[in-house]
Amino acid sequence: MLTPGLPPSDPAVDCAMAGLGPFERAPRLVAAVSGGRDSTALALMAKAWTAARGGELLAFTVDHRLRPESADEAAIAGARLAPFGIPHRILTRTGPLARGNVQAAARKARYELLAKACRDAGALHLLLGHHLEDQGETAAMRAERSSGDLGLAAMAPVSELADMRLLRPLLDRPRRDLEVYLARLGVEWIDDPTNLAPSSARGRLRAAMTPAQLAALGREAAAPASGRREREDRTARLLAGTGALHD
Prior knowledge:
Blueprint: H1 11-18, E1 28-32, H2 37-51, E2 56-63, H3 70-81, E3 88-92, H4 102-121, E4 125-127, H5 132-146, E5 158-160, E6 165-167, H6 175-185, H7 201-208, H8 211-222, H9 228-239
Parallel strand pairs: 1-2, 1-4, 2-3, 4-6
Antiparallel strand pairs: 5-6
Helix pairs in contact: 2-6, 5-8, 8-9
C-alpha cells in the first residue's frame, strides 16, 4: 500500500551525500528519473535528504520518443512521485537522433536536455541513480573496450562539469536494497525492456552474469589502486567463461 508524505530518510544515502559536497545551505537538487526502480528510489531518498536541510528536490524525466509507450511512462513516473511532494517535469526530445549507435546518441541527447533544464531551474547538482551492479556493468564494458584496468574504468561518485555536477550516491548500493526501500513505501516502478535487449553489450552482460557477479565487479572497480594486480586477476576470473562482452 502506498504511503504518501515525506519519504523516510536512508542513512546510507545520508552518509554518501556527505562525501559528494559541498552543497548550498539549502540545497537545490535535480534527480534524473526514468521511472525505473533505481532512479525512483533515488528521488525519494533525495527528497528526504533535501527536506531535512531546508532544500528542494526536482525530478526531470526525458522522453526520447523511441517507444510508443514512452510518453505514458514519463507521466506515470511523475505521478508516482507526486504523493511525496516532488515536483516533476517531462523533457521531450525532438528531432532525429545522430546516426550510428542509437543508445549512445540517446544518452548524449538526454544529458544535453538535462543540463539545460538544470540551468533553467538554477540547480547545480544532478543526481543519477547508478548503483553497484551498474558500476560493475559499466566498468567491465569500458575495460573491455580499452583493455585497461577495471578501476580506471569505474564511474566516479562525482563528475564535475563546466556548469553542473553529476552525483551518484548509490554506487555502493546493490539493486536489491532499492527494491526493498520501494516495497516499504508501496511504490511501483517501470521496467524498460531495452535494458535487457540482447543486441546491446549491456543486455548480453546482464543475461550472462548474475546480480551477485555484477555487484562483485562493482566492488572490484571501486577498490583502491593499491592491489591493482590482485584486482585484475580476480576480475579476469569473474568474467571468464561468460562470453558476455564478445559476439
